[in-house]
Automatic annotation (TrEMBL):
Gene3D superfamilies: MetI-like. The keyword Cell membrane applies. This is Carbohydrate ABC transporter permease. It comes from Brachybacterium kimchii. InterPro entries: MetI-like, MetI-like_sf. The lineage of its organism: Bacteria, Bacillati, Actinomycetota, Actinomycetes, Micrococcales.
């Protein structure tokens, strides 16, 4: 060690202890990270509030008489909430309960059928070897390029000849076979290792045993995501019931919402919004039940 390094002047040139310097840098890093979070968080919070604004208006309007629905400036919290709107929507002459039950039946059967066909078809295209597998899959995938509206007339004629027109089966059967569901499940199964199946075959397992006992349990997150998507599509489908259903007793919820009109034939905003609030409750419940698996499936799909 030199004499210069031992001199008192050199010791007083850097009086800050190393621990204090480390704490200062750490505090500065935390401060910068907090600022970055605020810079990203505030715009996202504003966007989230903008997306929630229509829902807030819907709930507020559902508790008002029709005469106050479009007043400006708007009163977000009514002085006297009109709960009679909900009572009339549920128990009145134009009750939505029959349409609600029709929607439940259609959505549940569509989800079950879609999961059964999509998982089996996806597994077949991903793991089974047969001649023309890729060509068949591409041909099946190409059918998604045809707009659904172009198929409405052929389906109408077809279901009419089969005697399924104006029945709930006209809504259920087409929803059981979708290209997107098969594609999603095929992409998931193809990402799974083939060694699982080879080891199971060496132990004497058949294809159905390999599918049901090995690959299907691992696909639960993707199956949950597909179930949520199918349920939402079925629940909000307005076009298909409009074409294939004419009997009001078989209306689903989107058609049932059109029944709430006033004396002039115009939409009754209070009753319509009360029915709309009730109609979104099942979707919220399904999402809350399966949200963890849905997020996990979306995350795994993004990483692969």
């Amino acid at each position: 060690m030199t004499d210069t390094a031992r001199s008192p002047g050199a010791a007083s040139a850097d009086p800050t202890p190393p621990q204090a310097t480390f704490e200062a840098r750490r505090a500065q890093h935390r401060r910068r990270r907090r600022i970055r979070r605020l810079a990203w968080g505030i715009p996202l919070w504003i966007l989230a509030l903008l997306f929630l604004l229509p829902f807030a208006w819907m709930i507020s309007t559902s508790l008002k008489p029709d005469s106050e629905a479009f007043l400006i400036p708007m009163q977000w919290i009514p002085d006297q909430p009109r709960w009679e709107n909900y009572r009339e929507v549920l128990l009145g002459e134009a009750s939505i309960l029959p349409a609600f039950m029709n929607s439940v039946v259609v959505a549940v059967l569509r989800v079950l059928g879609e999961l059964a066909t999509a998982t089996l078809a996806g597994y077949s295209f991903a793991k089974l070897r047969f001649p023309g597998r890729t060509r068949v899959f591409i041909a099946y995938l190409a059918t998604s390029l045809i707009p659904a509206q172009l198929l409405l007339v052929p389906r109408f004629v077809y279901f009419q000849q089969l005697g399924l027109y104006d029945t709930l089966w006209a809504l259920i059967l087409p929803g059981m076979f979708t290209v997107l569901g098969t594609f999603l499940m095929r992409q998931y199964f193809i990402s799974q290792p083939d060694e699982f199946a080879e080891a199971a075959r060496l132990d004497g397992a058949g294809e159905f045993q390999i599918f049901f006992r090995i690959y299907l349990p691992n696909a639960i997150p993707m199956i949950s995501a597909l179930a949520i998507l199918t349920f939402v599509w079925s629940w909000n489908d307005y076009e298909t019931p409009l074409v294939f259903i004419s009997d009001p007793a078989r209306f689903t919820l989107p058609l049932g919402l059109t029944n709430f009109v006033d004396e002039t034939g115009a939409m009754a905003p209070g009753l319509s919004m009360a029915a709309a609030v009730i109609s979104i409750i099942p979707i919220l419940l399904v999402f809350l039940i399966f949200q963890r698996r849905f997020i996990r499936a979306m995350t795994e799909s993004a990483l692969k």
